Amino acid sequence: MHIEIQRKAEISLSKQIYQCIIDHIRSGLLQEGEQLPSVRELSKQLGVSLVTVVKAYNKLEKENFVESIQGRGTFVTTEMQGKVDTEQDMLSFNWQLSVQDYLPRSQFSQFHYVPEKIHLSSSMIDPGLLPNRYLEREINQMISENPKLLSQYGPIQGDEQLRFAMYEYLKGLEVPTKPENILVTSGSQQGIDLVARTFVGPGDVVVMEAPTYPGAIDVFRGRGATILTVPVDNDGMRVDILQNLCDKYKPKVIYTIPTFHNPTGAVMTLKRRKQILNIAQSIQSIIIEDDPYSEIYFDKKPPVSIKSLDEYGHVIYLKGLSKTLAPGCRIGILAASGSIFKRLLAAKSNIDLGSPLLTQKVIVPFIKSRKMKDHTKKLRTALKVRRDLVLSILSENAPSEISWIIPKGGLNLWITLPSWIDSNHLLVKVKKQELTFLPGSACYAVEHENHHLRLSYSYMNEQLLHRGITILCEILQSEISLKKEHNHPPYF
Amino acid sequence: MHIEIQRKAEISLSKQIYQCIIDHIRSGLLQEGEQLPSVRELSKQLGVSLVTVVKAYNKLEKENFVESIQGRGTFVTTEMQGKVDTEQDMLSFNWQLSVQDYLPRSQFSQFHYVPEKIHLSSSMIDPGLLPNRYLEREINQMISENPKLLSQYGPIQGDEQLRFAMYEYLKGLEVPTKPENILVTSGSQQGIDLVARTFVGPGDVVVMEAPTYPGAIDVFRGRGATILTVPVDNDGMRVDILQNLCDKYKPKVIYTIPTFHNPTGAVMTLKRRKQILNIAQSIQSIIIEDDPYSEIYFDKKPPVSIKSLDEYGHVIYLKGLSKTLAPGCRIGILAASGSIFKRLLAAKSNIDLGSPLLTQKVIVPFIKSRKMKDHTKKLRTALKVRRDLVLSILSENAPSEISWIIPKGGLNLWITLPSWIDSNHLLVKVKKQELTFLPGSACYAVEHENHHLRLSYSYMNEQLLHRGITILCEILQSEISLKKEHNHPPYF
Questions:
Q1: CATH class for domain B112-129+373-486?
Q2: What is the ipTM of this complex?
Q3: A352: closest CA among B1, B454, B352, B105?
Q4: Where is the HTH gntR-type domain (chains A, B) (predicted)?
């Protein structure tokens, strides 16, 4: 088990250990029945006092994550995973447990592919809204014209036609770049990973929004970064707080999702976009501008990208196409410049020698054609309808103790529960009714915020969406009433 | 520029700095005309004496890699890249040069995609030998039956059908595993990277063969590993030397290509396979068994995989399918077990949330059918013909000072030149005749071996192969004669 302690962090060491173990449990890296290292072992391994470890273990036990058995040790008791690793020959592999890894967290994997019927947990788009039939025709034609497509590696940087098509497409989004400054990645998750492995190492300071996209937290934590967080309000990242942090530390990387922020849906104002860039310039930091779906706006167009304001190569811009076009192709791009771009390109070669040519070629004609515009328009309309549906059900049925932010675009809705409701526990309950969401705790890099949840309204059709939100409201309603009636202790 | 010094290594610090800078130049990370840090800066950054840096710079200058200009500094002079970064706005991005990265080497990228006509530099297979037409039909059928294929993410672990098909296929290769212990990767390059990022960190000891696959060196170097090397003879890795190393250090990972070793073509004997596994068991190490093309044997079947001998989960087995089946799909698999597998799966989620579903589905029917067997048979025959052609041209035309190892399978031929010929310089010459090969130096993690080269006979048709090898022999012949006649100093 990899536990990383940051001595200069403002959180106590025992809290860090506590959080790390919870992360392991929630990431499926520590499973039901698995034994934790002994207090003595862990204190030795981390170079901390016995008391520090005992404190962390006690807190975990109090909150029912672990169970300590006299004379045997401490074991994971959580029922959150719902599945036990039943591999019979696990015993033969026991030596493996002593092999240290560099993997503190991989929470997202637990919520990405779920068996539940009403799947509100990850932001994907209903396949019925994606242009499968068009793409199908294009694939057939393309391959019959050029069957060698399957037998060739593409350039490591990505297919030239795709880079050119993306350059044109990005121009339409007011994201200026050049085909030679575009790198094709396997989804924007790989883009984040690429930047992290190239520029972030142990102890380097990375600033993230709180909350933020869990997949990015996992990646930066995996590099041993010191993560500092800045809260998000309706206008995006709180730049005043960012400024204070930057005065004190000097982050190497600032990661932001300025438009339809994931998970809150907030849109960073133009003013703040300019400020954040100014800050990065003054302290020579890299900004990662993650832009999964700025095209999907419901009212008015969002402000221009930070990248469009960038004169000196501070911004690495990431655009995923997987979600909005063809998840089966897993394509994203990264746009950057100068030596930063050059180094990212070299890193891409080390990662996988380039993304598959087939999946790149498949989407080129669509992106180049008018259809891309029509498709985006369609998504805007269809997702607005779903968002409105969710909002209306919530307004009618949600207990008054619940609040939410109205998203002006994107795929997600961020809900805040009363502080005594832990959304991880709530998830166990709603799963019994075949419903899932993303517990808010996955979206926090350092804070212990357990009373939020993210709903994605983009994947389910309206009928299932209706049912799902109604069920959620009912369960919340009943929990709150129960608490009010009996005023029972917060077992939640 | 990221320079990593290993104080416990047996190579002097100045040699390490020297090698690191050459790696940067050969990886295209330091380009013609770029300035090196000043001696003072670098000595401060690395915490070494001025003399150490001066020594390294002097050696680089003597060998014409850099040029120092009075009062201005030291600049890269090499002509190896053949291209200069002409980006005009490079100046605006000068602040980027002070951004430290974690990317010591990415040599392979320079040889992967080349404009030269006679491309003997990377081991790919002639597209004319790959089953494009079959796959084309399968794609068309599959997509028309299930257009939603494009609009879905697959499981992070990989498509179930593909994992089952690979399980059956691997059974045929005597590589026992289970579908649930298979992880689909984007080529085996990603498999190596996955293991490295999960289990290898700064200072961890990794053992590699010398020479070995450059892409693996790049990845382990990028993790800050301490790399120790073991030479390869006709029977594979020298296990006696490995044993000595393991007695002294205790490598966390042993990386090997036991069958048709890349680049030498050597096949590890069964006895050594057993020994290497015993060693790993005794010191609780992980073995990465990279198996790009054990199916491509020319005479008799190679010995069984190390994985098939593995009882306690020490072996992580990697199988690429890109080269031998469909490079355009970039599919490979990784087979492992126990907690090691579980952690690799979690890491895959952090890397890219899973490989594209489309490229996975495309190859399933082919792998499951008889065609896969026939295809492999065809490759064996066709590549044997090409190997024989190369061997016969070499026997007839190569100067007697040149030697080579006869490969009994795989795609590569390893040539040893007289020690005064540097194959990096030779490459510059042959490129003028539209020919490329892989300079042997790329295949060494720590040694300074410049008088080898790797030819891949699998990509070019017989006509171009004939021409390429003939040209190479002519150039070598003329260089050697010239040296003999004039006994001129080894400018090579």
A1: alpha beta
A2: 0.83
A3: B352
A4: 11-79
